[in-house]
Every structure is written in C-alpha cells, then in structure tokens.
Amino acid sequence: MTEASTPLMRQYHSLKEQVPNALLMFRLGDFYELFFEDAVTASRELEITLTARNKEKGDPVPMCGVPYHAAGGYIARLIEKGHRVAVCDQMEAASPGKKLVRREVTRVITPGTATDGSLLNAGENNYLAAAMIDGSRAGVAFADLSTGEFRVTEVPAPELPGLLDSFRPREILVAAGSESLAVSGVVTPIDEWAFGGDYAQRTLRDHFRLLSLDGCGLEGRPLATAAAGAALHYLKDTQRSALDHLDRPSWFERNDAMVLDAVTIRNLEMVEPLFAADKGVPREATLLHSIDRTVTGMGARLLRRRLLQPSVDLAEIESRLDAVAELSRATIERSRINDVLRTILDLERMLSRVTLGTAGPRELFAMGKSIAALPELRKAIEGFASERAAGLRDRFDELPDVRSAILDTISDSPPANLADGGTIRRGCSSELDELREIQTNSRQFIAAIEMREREKTGIQSLKVRFNNVFGYYIEVSKANLALVPAAYERKQTLVNAERFTTPEVKELEVKILEAGEKILAIEQRMFEEVRQMVVANAARVRTAAAQVAEIDFLTALASVAAERRFTRPVFSGEGVLRIEGGRHPVVEVLLEQEAQRFTPNDLYLDNRKFLAILTGPNMGGKSTYLRQAALISILAQTGSFVPASAATLPLVDRVFTRIGASDNLSRGRSTFMVEMTETALILNTATERSLILLDEIGRGTSTYDGLAIAWAVVEFIHQRIRARTMFATHYHELTALAGRLDGVTNLRVSVEEAGDRIIFHRKVEPGAADKSYGIEVARLAALPDAVVERAREVLALHERTERAVSDVAAPATGPVQVKLFEPVNGQLAARIRALNIDDLRPLEALQLLAALKDELQ
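-> structure tokens emitted (857 positions)
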C-alpha cells in the first residue's frame, strides 16, 4: 500500500476535495500539517522546512507543519499573501484502539472572512463585498463578519467602482466569469447560482427567520437581494457555524452620506498619506490620525466610518455637535469616561469569535470583565444633559444577566485553551468540584477508606493499594482472613495474602481513573452553555457595543476640540461658506512638532461669488489652502468641531478633488489621461451642493492646450454646475475670467521679494498674482546656477512675446499660437502662418515671435 492510499491519506484527499482552492491545514496531534502542493506553497510562503512523509519507503509525500497552538500567526501570514486557508480539526479524541480519528473542515479563512485579531486592524472594518451587475444597475452587499455589520444597496453601474473604493473591502465576490466587474481588493468568483433571486431570498429568509425581506428594505430590489444572498451563502459556506451575531441586511442609500470617492480620500490624505514612510512622510500624516482620540476598537471603527461617510442630515449633525460641545467643557468627566473605556475590550469582535465558536476561555472571560464595566460607564455619563448623551444613558443596557453568566462560571484565571482544564470556577458544579477533589487528593481518599475499613474489620494490617493490572484493591494477610466481611469480593490470591474489592473501592477507582476525562467533559459542557447564553443575547451585546462606540466617538471628538482649539461650525441654508482663521488639521500638527506655527487663512464663498481662482507661487501654500477647506467641511459633517476661529458652512453632498499628478501605467493611462478622467467624473457628477477642489488642471499637456482646457472647465462649472469651487492654477490668464463671469473671484497667495530672495507668507488675500516664482523655487531646490540663469533668459524672451497678447480675452480654437495674436495684430498673425511656426522648436518659436513683434512695431 502506497502512502497516498493509506486510510489517513484517503481521509485527507476526501477533505481536500471540499476546499480545492484553499491551503488545507490538517490537524495531526499537536500540529497542523500540509501535504503535497499545499505543503510546497506553505513552506515557501512561511519560510519553514519542507519535509516528506513515508520517505524511507520510497514513496515520499511532501509535507510541512506548524504547532496548533501557534497556528494563528502562520494563518495570518498566508492570508496577507492572498491565500485562502481551510482549517481541518479532529472532532474526537484519539484512543489506543481507534486507528483513524474523525476530522472535518471547521472553517475556511479568507481575506474577507477573517476574525482573528492577528489578521485585523482594530480601527478598521474588514468588509466582504458581493456585487451583482445587470445592465445599468448594480446591487452590492457589505458584510463584516468580525463585527456583524451587514449593509446593502443598489447604485447605477458606473458608480459601483467608487462605492467599492469608499468601503475598501478586503474581498469582493462576483459571479464566476464576471471577475472584471470588480475593481479593487481580492476578487473571488463564486458559482453564479449563489446570486440567483429565488436562492438568495430563501437563504436570507431562512437564516434570519423572516417571512419577508420587506423589513430589510429589499422589496423590489432584486440586485441588492442577490448580492446579500451571495454574501450570506459565502459566509455560511466558509465558516461552517452559526452566524447569530450577523445583523439582518440593512438598506442604505449612497446619498444618505456625503459622497467621497477614492480619489478624494487619497488626495486629502484622510486615512493614508499620499507618499510612503520611506519617502520621509510619517504614516501619522493623515486626517484620521490627527483627530483619533478613541480608546476602544469599536470607537475607532465608528470614527473612521463616519469620517469617510459624513452625514448630510442636519439634525443628526447638530445632535452630535451638541454632545461634543457638552463633553468638551467637562474635562474631569471626560477623563473619567476614558478611564472606564480603557477597561472595555472590543465587544463586537469578541462576540463574533464567541458566536463562531473560535473564542477560548480567556476571551470569554475578558468579554465578561468588559461587560462588568458597563454600569460604571453609564454612571460616568449620567450628568450630561444633551439629547444624545441622555438618550445613550436612558437606553443603555448593562447586560447584567450576560455578565453574571460569564463571571459566575468562568474562573478568574482561565486557560488559553479549554482542553488545558481549569476553565470553570469552583462552586459552580458539585460534581465537578468532587472530581477535582478526587483528582487532587486521591491519596487522601485512599487513606480515608483504609482507615475506615481497619476500624470496621479490626484488621490493623489491612492496606488499600494500586497496580496497573488489578487497579485499586484491599489486601489482607492470611492470618486475618477470618475477620474479612462477607461483603468483600475476592480479587486475587497470593501466597501470604488475599486481595479484595468493595463497591466503594470500585467507585473510587472509576472516579480517580476517569476524573480527568470527566472534568474536561463537564467543563466543555458548562463552557458551551455559557457560550450559547451569550449567543442567544448577541443582539443585545451588539447594541451595547454600539453604545460604547458612540460614547467613545463623541468623547474623542470632544478631546480634540479642547486640545486643538477647534470651534463649533454653524450651518447655513443660504449657501454661505465662510471660514475665519482656518487651519489644516494635519499640517498644523506636523509644523508644531517642528516648533513652527501654521498661518491661518480666511475663505468666503456664497451663491453670488461661488468660484475662486487661486494664483500664487509654488510652495506658497495653495494646495494646503484648498485641502483645509475640504477637510473643515468633512469634519463638520462628521459631527466634529473644526480648526478655525469661526466657520459658517453649507451642507455639502459631495467633495471632489483633482490634486496632484499620478498615472496608472498598468492600465495604459498616462498622468494627463488620469487627470482628464478624474476631471470628467467631477464635471459629470457634481451638483450645486458639492464642493470642488481643482489644482493645476491642464498641466500634463502643452501650455496652450492646458490653458484652453482649464478655461473651459471654469466656464462649465460656472454655467452648468454652480458648485462651491476652488481652482488653483499657474495659468494667470484665467484670472481674467473674474471680469467676465459674475460668479468668479480671484484669490492669491502673498509673497515678498527681498533682493534675490523670496519670502512665502502663506497668506491668502483677494486679487490675482502676477507671476509664479518658479525659477526662484528651482534655485532654492539647488538647480545648477547655469540652469537657473539660462531659465531667466528664456523667461525674459517669453515674456516679451507674451506682452503682445496681454489683452486677449480668451483662447480660441484652432492653432492657438496663431489665433492668440489675431485680435492684437492681424499682420503679425499672417507672417506667423507664412513661417510655419508650428514646425519650430519651442525656443526657436519664441525667438522668432519676439523678432517679428519688434519688426512690426
């Protein structure tokens, strides 16, 4: 018989067939083993030794293994590398007479279904997404197995990529054959029938015990239903356990919150810096990090979620602001709240592991201790009068029954693994306590029996002994046989003695020999009873966790407001955007770390003047000024105070940004193409309630093409969209639009020239800048002096020709180099055409234009 055909290997192959696309970790005693190709892959990815089974018989089977108690770390590394891992456990204890232990695949771990702490970021949701597209519409579901969150919606198909990017799912489910429909994350194709309407409805109704899905908002929404059903099918298939902590799918509209697409989130550095830490940018240089004062993982996730999905409901925003205002004034009470919060661990994620059956005794005990802190937390918020704080206090569920069930049962020092024993505290079970006494004090019990039998029989030499063949027995010498009671049962005859047993000795023997096994069985039963009690109250635990998260969220925002001198924003229904003394919340912190001060600036836009063209030097702070306006609006609608002396803001439905240069070579898209694509998205989807930030539109092409595009974009926004817009540019020609379009105003970043030096004041003021100081910045960057001087010569030459067109109102279509001159001097334009100037190199063209201008003057 070859090794591959042994009973063990046949069992392995049978289980492997269930999970062909996952690495199968097969429990063998104290190790998880991998075989064949799985072993080769795992040994390479984990950098562990690849060995072979049955090598000495000439039939080697590749294998590698990891200790079962340390498997979590190895699984995490495999998941991070994009693998799926199937865990196969022994479902019964090994026994001497049993050759093959029953084994089953207990769960499949994938990027989107991870629940172990080593696989997760405490402050970030771990979403699994399922997407279903049919024509122009798409249904999508987002489920976080680690917290129980389950949300569904439908959107126009073109908006699906942006929605997926905003949730940043770790894994995206699509119907087999349609993988190209998803754009980010790990894409996992599953059977198309899992998205089927009838199957999806039945799966959802059966799991959540519903007669209808109407209460979930899924009535008449077949695509969302299909996506939700596919997500639930995948979770049930991979977890192979109850999902009682999973919420019913809840419907949401994308427009229920401010829409922030992936480009805007990236450009504003909301959760990740634009550049990596190895380029000198600290990973803390993000909006989220600058305001995150949360204490719990639940609060951190809530802050992140609300920051990326700011509210558009004015009543909800004001409710948050009222609570933040009250908490920001209560320094001592806020400190007390944080002290209590530090004793509360991540109830959401602990509940998930308890429900899935992967939590050990220590984790269940930690959940009980965290729940035990809830009464103190409720007491800490008693004195607050804001509607939100009072509502939290009045609805607060302290979970006393869940707390008692856990802490009255689980010992104060539980083991990491249930099999290690010692999980159940003394006093919970008289049977368990007796077995422990027997196991611990077996010698004392034997001595007590021996003493009683001596007194009863009068045989002072009577002994109670044990051997591996006969077990426990009573030994009496031949001389005392006449004193042996009739109830004694003869067990063995020796030369000088007889051995007997009694019902009491038999019972004690069984108890002693089986005590360990029975102790473990009782502890497992009682642990499971406590676990099931928690599972039965999963909805209440999730509600309590949400209340803790809300308190943490509000307290964190209040702490930031107090520490950073943030002020409460005011919302205007008249479209006024007024920021006085506005500051960039991230740049300000970074400057303070270098003992520098941030220069605050004002901004005013309204329905009459809603589009500001911002000009000024490089390094003058234009991009910072643009970004801080957006971040202030985002913070305000999150419910936070804002970094400004005062702020009156409109409710914004979307924030759009086109900042910086990037490309996507993997998709064959140049920097300019990316810029134009992002600009097109803004122009096609922005509304009058949006906030648009545009920085250096048109830089990726020729000067005149870029100027023409930028000019047309400004006109389009002014005439068609009328959104609050800030447009930073080095095309100073655009400043002329302030005299042509009623809604346009000019702003500039001030700069001071002191001899050959320039001083950046980073102060924004009304008016238009007259130059960009690019050459001065190049000098500061240490370009060779020869390059700087030659650049000045070329600039002077260019400015001589540029003055010939200084009165041109707007660039026209066609050969821009010629058309620009026609309004000023038709004769000059005719001479340029005759010379085929478009065929000349740029510098030659400039020189020729200058000569022609001098000649015609």
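DSSP finds 29 helices and 27 strands in the chain.
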